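Lay summary. Proteins are chains of building blocks that fold into shapes, and those shapes determine what they do. In this project we predict the shape from the chain. Here is one chain we studied, written as its sequence of building blocks.
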Amino acid sequence: MSGNIIQLNEDLIKNNLKDLVRDSVEETLNALLDHEANELVNAEKYERSGDRKGYHSGHYDRNFTTT
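And here is the predicted shape, written in a compact code that computers can read:
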């Protein structure tokens, strides 16, 4: 028999999966919020137009805190 044994670090896998899910949710929520802001002011970020009254300024990065 071969001496090859696969060992998995379950805690490492759970932490990496948790980080992956958190990052995915954060990216999705930010994309949804950006899309909603674009529709509310009828303009993309930094877009200039004389026809609209609203404006869409930039944003800043935030940390999405979950447990």
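What the prediction tells us: The helical segments are 10-41.
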